[in-house]
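Every protein is a chain of amino acids, and every chain bends into a shape of its own. The fold becomes a row of whole numbers, each drawn from a learned catalogue of backbone shapes. The protein below has been through that process, and both of its lines are reproduced in full.
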Amino acid sequence: MYVGTLSFDLLLGDVRSLKEKRSVVRPLVAELHRKFAVSVAEVGDQDLYRRARIGLAVVSGDAGHLTEILDRCERLVAARPEVELLSVRRRLHGDDD
């Protein structure tokens, strides 16, 4: 069994309130969940309206499949024009850890 996690640090574009922030972050979280069947949530910077931290986790029986899903999730977030991807933290855990 392999577990992979991603943590995205995002700078949001033209956002002036927490309400506008939700209108950007919620659809992104929902799309990641729907397209890739991953567990995903906003996990930090909830009180800052121009910043967001999104955490994502995947479980798989194959390390290659896990890496492919994490790569695809990262590309999806990086391609979104309304957010700037400041950093990504990736962790992989296997049975040997």
Observations:
- The chain has one domain: 2-93.
- Strands lie at 2-12, 39-44, 51-60, 83-93.
